[in-house]
Every structure is written in structure tokens, then in C-alpha cells.
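ingest -> validate -> predict -> emit
validate: passed (alphabet ok, no gaps, 304 aa)
predict: started
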Amino acid sequence: MNKYWKKAAAIVAVAGIALSATACSSSATLVSYKGGKITQDEYYKELKSSQAGKSTLANMIIYRALKQQYGKKVTQKQVDKEYNAYKKQYGSSFESALEQNGYTTSSFKKNIETNLLTVAALKDIKKITSKQEQKAWKSYQPKVTVQHILVSKKSTAEDVIKQLKSGTSFATLAKKYSIDSATKNKGGKLTAFDSTDTTLDSDFKTAAFKLKNGEYTTTPVKTQSGYEIIKMIKHPSKGKFSDHKKEIDEQIYQSMEQDTTTMQSVIRTVLKKSDISIKDKDLSNVLSSYMSTTATTNSATSSN
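emit:
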């Protein structure tokens, strides 16, 4: 799940709208204790002077601006599907993972929705050029199907390779040695993937794409998960660009999502369209980090 937290932060971190900032004046008691009380006015004054309070308000504004402009492009079904995918991936440790990263179920779903809305805004505001597509096409690899055996020690991987060379079947060795419980009983077979895949280790993909049908890696492949032995089942020819345009465009957009400058530009455009007016002068600068680079961006654009 760490990859998700990083992605969420790169786009716009909505850490749960747990605090509600309101400019309405109220002396109503919020908390009472022996010998005193805390009023809503006091709480609001303290909240708006804190960085956490300002960040919360900024995130609320961004979320609502995105929702107003792109809400029709993101459904609750999409949010639930992505949420359930993470829940399934982490199983019984999901709740603790949420807690460790400061999320509740509600705030995590809102974060997913915000990211989906931001991607919708990105695709609407930033159009892909043919130059970008051709550049991505040069390094594109079509979907391949492989088997793999994941082990924790290099020496174990080397022993597995020796057994493969002596004629033992890959499926037999996967079942005996692989620590990937999801694939070991399936001969180590993975779902087909291409070079746009973001779930697999980059070193794993690089090693796999070098293999021809029937070949396997003769030296252990070190990844973040351990040591891998990979066998190519199906490595199709690259084919035509038109056959893979959808995947290529998605790869380009995924790259844009990881670029902070690009995503700030997208959020800035969304906010400008919303014509934001902040009534409390003490909070007038909560969006400055998103809006302050307008001049720089315009200058860079005009000079191209």
C-alpha cells in the first residue's frame, strides 16, 4: 500500500476531512471542564492559525472544486472497486495499514475519490501529443506471460536454476520453493503484463522482456521482494502502434501523475475555473502553494 500513499501525496493529500472550518462566529461551548470552557470561536481561531487547519481547508476546497467539475466522471462504483482491491491485497492487515497511515475507511475512500477526480481533470486539461506517444512507443513492450519462482535467498535461487538445467519442471520447483503463495500452486504463472505495468518491480520487468519463448533467467534476478527466477511463456511481437495506443496513452498519463509540477498545474487550472473566494482574510493564502506559480508557468509556456 505504500505506493498508493506516495501517489496520493503526489497528487493531493486529503487526509480525511476530520476538521470542519467555518467562518461563522459562535460563542457556544464546544468543550467544558472544571473551571472553564472552550468555545467554538476559540477552537476556530486556534484551528485557522495552525498549518494543519489551513491544509485541511485547502484540501476541502480542492476536493469540492474537483467534484463540481468532474464528479460525473467518477462513480461510487469506481471508488469501491479500488478500495476493495486494496482491502483484498492486504487482507487481515488492511485495517492496521489504514490506521498506521492516518486513515479511516471514510477518509481513505475520499482519498481514492480525490485521486480519481484528479486523474479525470488531468486527462481533460493535459492532452497527449503524438510526439509523446512516439517517444513512449520506442520503449514499449507488449503484454507477456511468464512463470516465476520467488525465493528469499540468492543461494536458493541458484539451486533452483541448477535443478531447472538438470530437467526438473518449472511448475514442480515453483510449488516446492516459491514464497509467492498466490502463484506457487499455479506453476508460478503471473497475469499478463506489459511495460506500462506499475505493480511489478522494474528489474523484474526488464529481465522478463529480454527472454524469448521458453527461456528462463540463468542468474537470480534481485528485486524488492527477494530473488526471482523467470520463465517466458508467451512473448508476442511488438505489433503496430495503433494496436497499443490505449496502453501507451495510459502509460503517459501515469507518468504525468508522478510529476508534481504537472499535477499542481492541473489543480491550479481547476481552482481558477472555480473562481474561489475566501471570506476570512486570515485564511486568504491557504491556496498559495497551488496558485503562486501561475506567472512562472505562463512564462514557460509563452517561451516554448
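The chain is about 55% helix and 10% strand.
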